[in-house]
Specification:
about 290 residues; mainly alpha; four-stranded mixed sheet; 10 helices
Length: about 290
């Protein structure tokens, strides 16, 4: 429920800002050209936020987690992390990502707008709770996310659903305004109320689609880890270890790129499949 409340609050804030931008730049005139113009405006708004978020993803991740990028390894653990990620990046055919460590419960994530300049971060809790083979499997999973272009693909999916949420909310708002509130010229209060409500409702429903896609790509990243290491066993062991601990919470903007996520009551909105399902998928591909 907390995740949904955070989404609703963020969605309202974003829509207020976008509405101001639309007015300032005269983009609202596009809607006057009919559904084609409205769809174009919706695409501009829908993709703008997703793309800006992608371009800022590394900066946001570092700020929100307090991650320390390893510029010069200060100890044996940091040196091992950098060399392990370098080896995995070479195997995946991508540029060397930045490697970072942050304070927190067991988790890890990868983010960044470009395959050759991404960021891989692990928590101190994960380093303390796993052996090197298991940590390497988690790092391989995150490198696989980068190699698969998951950050860009997720941005495109988010942009598409944003576009249709923006578009449908306004189309339905116009219909309700004319049919229920009998507005004949321009948009009356019924339009604005309906758009605001539908923006939230449709936005929440859209996140189910985004979460479903996120769960799907986790299987690919797990398989990538098995491929880079030559066996699914390290990743299976890492997942089993994660199944015995409480996963550390990640900020909303990057939680889809973590190694695990809390499921249960809000399973439809979970960005990761249940650990036991991921283990079964890895074992079936041996």
């Amino acid at each position: 429920m907390k995740r949904i409340l955070l989404f609703v609050a963020t969605n309202i804030a974003v829509m207020v800002v976008l509405s101001i931008v639309i007015k300032l730049f005269g983009l609202d005139r596009m809607a006057g050209a009919g559904y084609g113009g409205l769809l174009l405006m919706s695409a501009v708004v829908g993709f703008a936020g997703a793309i800006i978020s992608l371009l800022m993803s590394k900066w946001m991740a570092k700020r929100s987690t307090g991650a320390h990028v390893i510029e010069q390894p200060a100890n044996e653990t940091e040196a091992w992390l950098v060399e392990t990620v370098r080896k995995l990046a070479t195997a995946a055919g991508i540029g060397m990502p930045e490697v970072a460590v942050y304070e927190g419960e067991p988790n890890a994530f990868a983010t960044g707008a470009f395959r050759n300049s991404a960021l891989v971060a692990v928590s101190t809790g994960l380093l303390q709770s796993m052996n090197k083979e298991e940590v390497e499997a988690v790092l391989a999973h995150e490198v696989a996310h980068i190699a698969n272009g998951d950050m860009v693909t997720m941005t495109l999916v988010q942009g598409v659903v944003n576009t249709f949420v923006f578009f449908l909310a306004r189309v339905i708002g116009s219909i309700v305004d004319r049919a229920v509130f009998k507005s004949e010229r321009g948009n009356g209060p019924g339009y604005f109320i309906t758009v605001l409500v539908l923006q939230v409702v449709l936005g929440v429903l859209a996140q189910i689609i985004v979460a479903w896609f996120s769960r799907h790509r986790e299987f690919r990243a797990d398989a990538g880890s098995a491929q880079y290491l030559g066996s699914p066993v390290p990743m299976v062991n890492a997942l089993r270890r994660l199944g015995g601990v409480e996963p550390g919470a990640l900020p909303e903007a990057i939680k889809a790129f973590g190694i695990t996520d809390k499921a249960g009551f809000m399973a439809l909105f979970s960005t990761h499949p249940p650990i036991e399902v991921r283990i079964a998928a890895l074992q079936s591909n041996r």
